[in-house]
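Attaching the record inline, Q. Sequence:
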Amino acid sequence: MSKGYQYLENDFFDLCNTRNIRAVPMLLYIYLRGLYCRFQNSAFFCKDKQIQGHLGLSHKTLQRARLILQERGLIKFVSGVGNTLTTYQMLGTVLLPNGMDKTAPGYGHFKGKGMVKKTTPIYKSYERAKNRIGEEVFKGIPKDERIELHSRGLL
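Structure, as predicted:
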């Protein structure tokens, strides 16, 4: 049975309580777990504005929640300055999903207090095309229904 990328084990919330992780930092951690699973990497980049918009947090609340998670040993982060994205690293704990790589990334990603700044990956057109739904999915649908789906933006 596939659990999906954001399956929370039954004791997730109990473990958060024992680590004194309250509602807002827990919400941020669940969000970051989703990104961790999506990117299949313990180190990734994200815009603060994106997180604030998705979770409905102010910038100050986001900052406090990140600091709490870092103090509890769940993440490391380096805040982005200006247009630079914030860099996150999920640290290997029991709160991460099972079956995922819980090791830190290779050498050179972290030095001293923070991470070496890296650029955001640039996806090539063939990589973007892998995620598109093509015509072959809709082969058995009549042409008039395809036109209707296309007008709704589904095809």
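The two ends are 29 Å apart (CA to CA). The beta strands are 43-46, 75-78, 86-90, 110-111, 114-115.

More tomorrow.
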